[in-house]
Write a structure and sequence with these properties.
Order of helices and strands of chain A: HHHEEHH
Low-confidence stretches of chain B: 499-513
Structural class of chain B: mainly alpha
Largest interface: A-B, 57 and 79 residues
Strand order of the largest sheet of chain A: 1-2
Distance between the termini of chain B: 70 Å
Helix content of chain B: over 70%
Structural class of chain A: mainly alpha
Oligomer: heterodimer
Low-confidence stretches of chain A: 85-102
Number of strands of chain B: 0
Largest sheet of chain B: none
Number of helices of chain A: 5
Radius of gyration of chain A: 21 Å
Mean pLDDT of chain B: 84
Strand content of chain B: under 5%
Shape of chain B: globular
Largest sheet of chain A: 2 strands, antiparallel
Chain lengths: 102, 513
């Protein structure tokens, strides 16, 4: 499993999680989706579906982000920044930013 | 002395003890603004979570949930969506912050667009957005002391006492900067989020004579289960618009963005973001479930905004009422601290010292930021006094959101999309803010003729069209294209500074491939 994750295309992995984000976002902002749950009184673990909808949607996203973090950890994508040394003094930033302008 | 006052004193002594034991004067601006970029997962996570939970949540948002049920749950959705979005952009935002010594959110705009104007406009919009929250938090502070006195204290006295309390706390913010903020955020967060969530969980489980339980959720009135737009006077887009504003606003609040820069690495900022997701999800879900379960209680219906006080008192008498007072106090102190701290930093770093040539040394900029903190606190107190009787303070906060989200296209697309340019960033922010403010003057809550969407969302759409349109109408010069490409290469994990400074848009990662 971990060797497969290390070999996987990072762009593809990122796109999968952007897709999950987009689906959960649409479920929360597009009326035809959330209106279907509005007023629903059936219980999900003791909570009416109308309320549970607004808990399950972010829960799915939160779990997905946890999985994404684990994948990034396995791939070693989270490390390496400490090698930068101390924070920049702004000199390189000034070079890239052109010292301001506009 | 009542239990409320005893608990307030204990809370205050605990807070001062933490500040005293961890004190370290902030003489460098980097230390003052971002705490030396040295904090780990749980400090970053809790600090970020606390930036979401103001004292007005327990009064305004829970009061709204008593009256409108499911509508209050939109904060669970938009907070997790917003923080997840922050997770996705955290790597580049943090790396730019560290590699270019960025100290504020507008600093990032300045570097991205090579524009002092973009930086200053972003800073002004951010400050305008924070001020209404500071006023509302100052008022909530007064309400806390009024409740602690058993309702015997006059509003004026309570307001004065609240401001005096915050002033004592601000002495340490001024002295220690972000370090003091992060240390006390952990303490305050443990009380206002973790401890509060434990009490809510016990209530839902029906432990110890709880006035409500999970079983109450099975018998809710039908009106509490319907979102705005499903009947009633709001159109279908109201709920979605509020969530969209919340998601975009999450990244736009300078108070939240500032926390990204305090992390010690990309790993920390990402694990910290995950930690804050867990804290916010559990806290918001439990508090809202408890509130909606209590909506049928006559005492709660009589005073929806006082639902926390009513429930805690019913659960455990005057000591639990005191705990409710301290929970709101802890949340308020955290938000006020963060708000005034960020305004001080932005005025010094972006407005006064943000031109092509720095006017003042870092040491003087730190002093300017500290003076601004005092000025902002005084202004918030004056604003709180004169608007105390304003009947729709929650609307005041909604308007702040409508303004702040106009930073969204320039900030968020600017991090992901190289083609965006300064013309689009500046034009979009100005037009979006003007439209949101103009529409809100006539339709402060929603736009009935557009399905109850809000002026802020209309401004955001225009803002986005201008940003994308300018990207194609005014393409980058070859020099600017190379500069932006090099900037994006600097957001990669392994980066070769010399190559970036030369304008080579090849990161070490890309070269390795």
């Amino acid at each position: 499993m971990t060797s497969y994750i290390r070999r996987a295309d990072p762009v593809r992995i990122e796109r999968i999680f952007w897709l999950i984000f987009l689906v959960t976002l649409l479920a929360a902002v597009v009326p035809p989706f959330y209106m279907r749950a509005s007023g629903a009184g059936g219980l999900v673990l003791g909570v009416p579906l109308a309320l549970a909808y607004w808990i399950i949607d972010p829960f799915i996203l939160m779990v997905a982000m946890g999985v994404y973090y684990w994948i990034e950890h396995v791939r070693g994508d989270l490390d390496g920044d400490a090698e930068d040394g101390p924070p920049g003094d702004g000199a390189v930033g000034d070079a890239l930013a052109g010292g301001g302008g506009s | 002395m009542t239990p409320s006052w005893i608990l307030i004193i204990l809370f205050t002594l605990g807070m001062l003890a933490i500040l005293y034991l961890t004190q370290k004067d902030s003489r460098s601006f980097d230390e003052f603004a971002v705490g030396g970029r040295s904090y780990g997962t749980w400090y970053v996570g809790m600090s970020y979570a606390v930036s979401w939970i103001s004292g007005t949540y327990y009064t305004g948002m829970l009061g709204l949930t008593v009256r409108q049920g499911v509508f209050g749950f939109y904060i669970v959705a938009f907070s997790i969506l917003g923080v997840a979005f922050m997770y996705m952009l955290a790597s580049r935002a943090w790396r730019w912050g560290r590699r270019f010594d960025l100290r504020s959110q507008p600093d990032l705009m300045g570097v991205r667009y090579q524009s002092v104007a973009a930086k200053r406009i972003a800073s002004v919009i951010g400050i305008i957005g924070i001020i209404p929250f500071l006023i509302v938090c100052s008022q909530a502070m007064a309400e806390v002391f009024r409740v602690a006195s058993g309702g015997h204290m006059s509003i004026m006295t309570a307001l004065f006492l609240g401001i005096a309390f915050v002033s004592v706390r601000q002495y340490w913010t001024i002295r220690m900067g972000m370090r003091g903020l992060i240390m006390t955020d952990m303490y305050q967060g443990l009380i206002c989020a973790v401890l509060a969530a434990v009490v809510f969980l016990l209530m839902l489980a029906g432990v110890g004579g709880s006035p409500i339980s999970l079983a109450d959720l099975a018998h809710l009135e039908g009106s509490l289960l319907r979102v705005p737009g499903d009947g009633g006077h709001y159109g279908p887009f109201y709920m979605g618009s509020q969530i969209l504003m919340g998601v975009v606003g999450t990244m736009c609040w300078p108070t939240s963005f500032q926390r990204v820069y305090t992390a010690s690495s990309v790993r920390t900022v990402k694990s910290g973001t995950l930690a804050s997701m867990v804290i916010l999800f559990v806290f918001f879900s439990l508090s809202l479930l408890v509130t909606v379960a209590a909506a049928h209680l006559p005492a709660v219906q009589a005073d929806p905004q006082g639902v926390l006080f009513t429930l805690f008192q019913a659960y455990g008498g005057s000591w639990m009422l005191g705990l409710a007072v301290v929970i709101i106090l802890a949340a308020n102190v955290g938000w006020l601290d963060g708000g005034v701290q960020v305004i001080g930093i932005q005025v010094a770093n972006d407005l006064i010292n943000g031109g092509q040539v720095k006017r003042y040394s870092d040491e003087k900029a730190t002093i300017i930021a500290k003076v601004m903190i005092v000025v902002v606190m005084v202004l918030a107190a004056v604003g709180a006094y004169f608007s105390f009787d304003f009947s729709r303070l929650s609307l005041f906060v909604q308007l702040a959101y409508e303004g702040i989200i106009q930073l969204g296209p320039a900030l968020l697309l600017g991090i992901f999309w190289q083609r965006g340019n300064r013309e689009g960033a500046i034009g979009g922010m100005l037009a979006g803010f003007a439209i949101a403010a103009g529409l809100s003057l006539f339709w402060p809550d929603d736009l009935p003729f557009l399905g109850s969407t809000t002026g802020g969302v209309v401004g955001l759409v225009v803002n986005l069209v201008i940003y994308i349109g300018c990207a194609y109408l005014f393409p980058h010069s070859a020099e600017e294209r190379a500069r932006v490409a090099a900037l994006f290469a600097a957001g990669e994990r392994r980066w070769v500074p010399a190559a970036a400074a030369r304008g080579d848009h090849v990161s070490a990662d890309m070269a390795a491939e």
